[in-house]
Amino acid sequence: MRIATWNVNSVKAREARVVGWLREHRPDVLGLQELKTTDEAYPAEAVRAEGFESAVYGQKAFNGVALISPHPIADVRRGLENDDPQARLIAGVVRGVTVYSAYFPNGRTVGSEAYDYKLAWMGRLLELLDSRHVPADPVVLTGDFNVAPDDLDAQDPERWEPSVLCHPAARAALERIRGWGFVDVVRKHNTAGRLYSWWDYRRLAFPRNDGLRIDHIFATAPVADASTGAWVDRNQRKGKKTDIPSDHAPVVADFDI
Question: Does the annotation count 144 as an active-site position?
Answer without folding.
Answer: yes
